[in-house]
């Protein structure tokens, strides 16, 4: 070390959080005396280092002592690293010359022995001091932000996000897998707790999306490939062949009227109704152009038919149309791909798929929908019998270790909504079987009370079985719901005509694949993970990738909309900045040492390493690299080093931790 | 030739001898050898585990240790024996301390159990180890038109293995279809037969038997097929008592599934122990078995 550094050490009390266990005064004095040789010229302790007074203290010292390095011993860097780095920056010291040492999470919070915790804090500070000497001044990398945004998923959360950004004047590419946007909300008749008509509140938004000059709507489309990094993503989108020319089609509907091929609609109608081989999923579909389902169209199967073509007044049918790959440049991405309903077939004792009059929640939504297959008449599977007794089973597939441990958050309310609709339309006797009623939203508890007043029976107990094994008089032809009423301790056999399974929400079947495509990850449950569960719920660990709606976890429509808007606001903020500063903590590969083995290419969780076939060497894309260090450890040739984590920094930190840097200690440590 | 270590269990020696006979006859037809375990002992049956758990584990472990020496998978035709052996093996695997205690006791007999035995219920041999095609290929008199209620009972699928469907399994139905019979929708197929409750709480157990019989009648079955001597006894021998208790009028035939397979394979009824029933089986069943002769 040619030039001797001048280091300041700042020990924080964090109120009693640290000072209650660690003797902070002793630690501070110890550092001043024992780390002098390492360059410590001043050491202080203070009640709240992160307060503005604490920060000013550091800034004053930087000026007065001409400090060249700062070590703050306080909480975890996760919390306040940015605070102290900024403080240094304010005093014209490069922020990366400030090192945070955690003596709260790593000492006071995890130990009860005060003496030992104090000694450990000294060692941690010693390590920090030894390391900071080798810290280098770093400059953030500035990258421009492309002002366009990609939104994947056209459910209510994606719709909200797209409109917010488009209304602010920026381009949005909205990619939806199905022929129309709308998501699950489009399937419902009424929405809890206000019972507004779902279509009435959703359709205007869908229409806005369809006609917005700033929104490029790509339905019947999927993401093929994503490359690049925050501010500069290149996305390939596969626009599947509709077999209908959107430029000429007027959406008149003659084609699907004339098409002779009926197909059970397992998506929008949840298997309850039919559509044609050429179809729009529902009358208010946006866009209004149909698609031909080639797997079921007679022409694609047998080579004959073409009725749609014959009758189409605008010659819009195009059997030869091919998938199109569209490449777009965007600066940010919102994933709003939503959820799948839990497959109730998996709970075989509830009989769904085996017992005709067991319905799933989505089936019931279609059954009760005025635009649905029965015109909103709530009837049994035979299509005509109105049920006299209906049982609604809560928590199907949720709060159950055999399926999903989590609460699906919306199904209590959805069950109450069902009970209300059944009551209103059939006057049937209704039983709700619940574990707990979870009604925590605005107006939700009130809705529950309304249902109590309507005379719905609430039985607290987890349903054991639904069967057709009738035994007692009055049970003939009924389904028997077997349940323990845990409030009275009685076993009940409740004969019903119709059972509705309030199936929970599950991550999309392809959620993992989608997450991987965008370089983010899923929780153990399979939901996409936010950057912070409380403080950053719509960002992800990958810069520029945001999540909104049920893709992040079960939630109702208001929460999905709020997240869509929040993600949009975050992105608008970024777009306004025009460029983004990236943390300079990242890896770099020394070309001459790289053997071209490509091991690092695969270990990088952020796909940040590319391979130059011509030179046979790997290179880190600094804008994508998150500085995790995985590749540094993985490279067999030792060709990769991580800024801020050089071997020298790590090794001297270890030496410092072991107090090998202190002369008096060197003698006591056996060689 | 497939070979298994066979643990008949106490019931099959006397009370359920027809199960024993039909098990041996039908497996023989399929080229399977059931080699009876040497010097086996009782599995502890339904009660022993509640009286002295350690001794009960030791009883089962002794059989497992003997089986382990043969290097074969062990097969039990009785659901209770199967369940006791299966969960003993599972517990010994999980609980090293228990295994040590048990092995200490087994040393007296120069035995040791190392945890390397696969335990199967006899019906699993037919459902998993033999294909439906193999069964079909041996059928000479398909049980056409015979409606059979597949009665699994509550123990065959316990404890649950991996993701096995323990609520609505279908393998019994698969075997019945393979022999040409019609498996009926038998909603109570997984319900308990009452087990040994018949001794301690007679009325409760009789009600359980009544429900099972009624459900079989309602599903228009000709016969109930069982895979356990205890189920068989409860369902068959207590029909009189059920009738007295509840004023019903049951006289419903119950057979071991191996007897039905045997009939379909064209094995003479006598060799399957048929003729020893409490409730005589419908002549149509025997006729269906013989019709193709
Ligand atoms: C039966 C039932 C009733 C409900 N009733 C109510 C109610 O009354 N009130 C209420 O507040 N909430 C209700 N909810 C909850 C409500 O459905 C959700 O809160 C809301 O739909 C979430 O919207 P979303 O946009 O996040 O997801 P979704 O509605 O699931 O939309 C996601 C969209 O993304 C598309 N997509 C998926 N994967 C891809 C991909 N890889 N590429 C491109 N596109 C993709 C899908 O096709 C879909 O259009 C109910 C839920 C259920 C199951
Ligand atoms: S008939 Fe032609 S114009 Fe009319 S909706 Fe069909 S494809 Fe479009
Ligand atoms: S070709 Fe015939 S089956 Fe196919 S979409 Fe057109 S009308 Fe329907
Ligand atoms: S919201 Fe209600 S029904 Fe749904 S999982 Fe939670 S407690 Fe169960
Ligand atoms: S440090 Fe290496 S592995 Fe980690 S993000 Fe950067 S390039 Fe990828």
How many extended strands of chain B?
A: 8
CATH class of the largest domain in chain B: Alpha Beta
Beta-strand fraction estimate of chain A: 15-25%
Give a list of the ligands: flavin-adenine dinucleotide, iron/sulfur cluster
Q: How many domains in all of chain A?
A: 4
Query: Structural class of chain A, please?
Result: alpha/beta
In DSSP terms, counting alpha (H) and pi (I) runs of 4 or more, how many helices of chain A? Answer: 19
CATH class of the largest domain in chain A equals: Alpha Beta
CATH-level-2 architecture of the largest domain in chain B:
3-Layer(aba) Sandwich
CATH superfamily of the largest domain in chain A: FAD/NAD(P)-binding domain
Q: Secondary-structure element sequence of chain B?
A: EHEHHEHHEHHEHEHHEHHEHH
Described by strand count, sense and barrel closure, the largest sheet of chain B is: 4 strands, parallel
Share of helix of chain B, binned: 40-55%
Radius of gyration of chain A (Å): 31 Å
CATH architecture of the largest domain in chain A: 3-Layer(bba) Sandwich
Q: What is the oligomeric state here?
A: heterodimer
């Amino acid at each position: 070390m040619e030039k001797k550094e001048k280091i300041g050490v700042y020990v924080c009390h964090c109120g009693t959080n640290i000072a209650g266990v660690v003797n902070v005064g002793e630690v501070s004095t110890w550092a001043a005396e024992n780390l002098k040789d390492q360059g410590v010229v001043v050491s202080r302790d203070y009640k709240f280092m992160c307060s503005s007074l604490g920060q000013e203290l550091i800034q004053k010292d930087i000026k007065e002592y001409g400090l060249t390095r700062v070590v703050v011993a306080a909480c975890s860097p996760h919390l306040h690293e940015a605070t102290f780095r900024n403080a240094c920056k304010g005093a014209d010291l490069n922020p990366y010359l400030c090192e945070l040492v955690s003596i709260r999470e790593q000492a006071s919070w995890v130990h009860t022995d005060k003496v030992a915790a104090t000694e450990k804090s000294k060692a941690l500070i010693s390590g920090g001091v030894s390391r900071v000497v080798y810290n280098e001044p770093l400059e953030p990398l500035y990258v421009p932000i492309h002002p366009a945004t990609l939104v994947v998923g056209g459910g209510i959360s994606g719709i909200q996000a797209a409109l917010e950004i488009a209304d602010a004047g920026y381009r949005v590419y909205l990619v939806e897998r199905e022929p129309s946007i709308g998501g699950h909300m489009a399937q419902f008749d009424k929405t809890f707790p206000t019972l507004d008509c779902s279509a009435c509140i959703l359709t205007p938004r869908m229409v806005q999306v369809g006609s917005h000059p700033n929104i490029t709507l790509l339905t019947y489309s999927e993401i093929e490939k994503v490359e690049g990094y925050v501010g500069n993503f290149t996305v390939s989108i596969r626009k599947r062949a509709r077999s209908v020319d959107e430029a000429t089609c007027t959406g008149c509907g003659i084609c699907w009227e004339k098409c002779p091929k009926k197909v059970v609609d397992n998506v929008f109608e949840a298997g309850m109704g039919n559509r044609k081989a050429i179809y729009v999923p529902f009358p208010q579909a946006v866009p209004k152009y149909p698609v031909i389902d080639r797997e079921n169209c007679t022409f694609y199967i047998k080579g004959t038919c073409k009725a749609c073509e014959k009758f189409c007044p605008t010659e819009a049918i195009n059997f030869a149309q091919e998938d199109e790959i569209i490449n777009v440049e965007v600066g940010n991405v919102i994933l709003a791909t939503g959820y799948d309903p839990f497959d109730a077939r998996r709970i075989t004792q509830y009989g769904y798929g085996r017992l005709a009059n067991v319905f799933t929640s989505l089936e019931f939504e279609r059954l009760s929908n005025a635009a649905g297959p029965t015109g909103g008449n709530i009837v049994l599977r035979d299509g005509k019998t109105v049920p006299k007794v209906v049982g609604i089973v809560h928590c199907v597939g949720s709060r159950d270790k055999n399926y999903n441990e989590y609460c699906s958050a919306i199904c209590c309310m959805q069950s109450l909504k069902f009970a209300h609709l059944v009551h209103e339309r059939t006057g049937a006797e209704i039983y709700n079987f619940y574990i707990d009623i979870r009604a925590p939203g605005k107006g939700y508890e009130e809705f529950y009370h309304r249902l109590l007043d309507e005379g719905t029976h609430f039985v607290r107990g987890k349903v054991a079985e639904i069967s057709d094994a009738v035994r007692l008089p009055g049970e003939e032809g009924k389904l028997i719901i077997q349940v323990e009423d845990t409030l009275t301790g009685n076993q009940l056999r409740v004969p019903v005509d119709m059972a509705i399974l309030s199936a929970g929400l599950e991550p999309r079947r392809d959620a993992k694949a989608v997450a991987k495509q965008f370089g983010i990850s899923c929780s153990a449950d399979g939901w996409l993970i936010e950057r912070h569960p409380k403080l950053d719920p719509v960002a992800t660990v990958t810069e520029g990738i945001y999540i909104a709606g049920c893709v992040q976890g079960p939630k109702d429509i208001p929460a999905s909309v709020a997240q869509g808007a929040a993600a949009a606001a975050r992105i608008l903020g970024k777009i306004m900045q025009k460029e983004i500063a990236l943390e300079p903590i990242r890896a770099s590969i020394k070309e001459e040492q790289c053997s071209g083995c490509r091991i690092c290419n695969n270990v990088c969780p952020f796909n940040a390493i590319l391979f130059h076939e011509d030179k046979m060497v790997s290179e880190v894309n600094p804008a994508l690299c998150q500085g995790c260090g995985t590749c540094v450890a993985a490279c067999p040739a030792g060709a990769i080093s991580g800024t801020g984590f050089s071997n020298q920094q790590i090794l001297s930190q270890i030496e410092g931790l072991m107090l090998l840097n202190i002369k008096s200690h060197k003698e006591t440590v056996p060689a | 030739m497939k070979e298994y270590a066979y643990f008949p269990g106490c019931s099959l020696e006397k009370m359920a001898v027809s199960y024993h006979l039909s098990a041996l006859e039908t497996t023989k037809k399929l080229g399977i050898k059931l080699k009876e375990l040497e010097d086996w002992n009782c599995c502890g049956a339904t009660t022993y585990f509640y009286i002295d758990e350690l001794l009960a584990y030791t009883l089962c472990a002794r059989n497992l240790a003997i089986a382990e020496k043969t290097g074969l998978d062990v097969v039990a035709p009785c659901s209770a024996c199967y369940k006791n052996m299966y969960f003993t093996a599972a517990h010994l695997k999980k609980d090293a301390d228990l295994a040590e205690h048990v092995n200490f006791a087994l040393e007296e007999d120069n035995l040791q159990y190392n945890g390397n035995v696969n335990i199967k219920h006899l019906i699993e041999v037919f459902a998993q180890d033999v294909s439906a095609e193999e069964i079909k290929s041996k059928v000479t008199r398909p049980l056409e038109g015979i409606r059979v209620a597949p009665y699994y009972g509550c123990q065959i699928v316990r404890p649950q293995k991996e993701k096995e469907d323990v609520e609505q399994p279908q393998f019994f139905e698969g075997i019945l279809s393979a022999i040409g019979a019609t498996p009926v929708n038998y909603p109570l197929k997984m319900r308990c037969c009452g087990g040994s409750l018949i001794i301690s709480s007679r009325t409760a157990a009789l009600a359980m038997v009544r429900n099972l019989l009624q459900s079989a009648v309602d599903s228009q079955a000709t016969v109930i097929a069982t895979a356990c001597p205890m189920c068989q006894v409860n369902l068959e021998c207590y029909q009189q008592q059920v009738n007295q208790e509840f004023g019903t009028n049951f006289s419903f035939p119950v057979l071991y599934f191996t007897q039905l397979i045997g009939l379909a394979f064209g094995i003479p009824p006598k060799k399957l122990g048929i003729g020893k029933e409490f409730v005589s089986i419908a002549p149509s069943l025997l006729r269906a078995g013989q019709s193709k002769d």
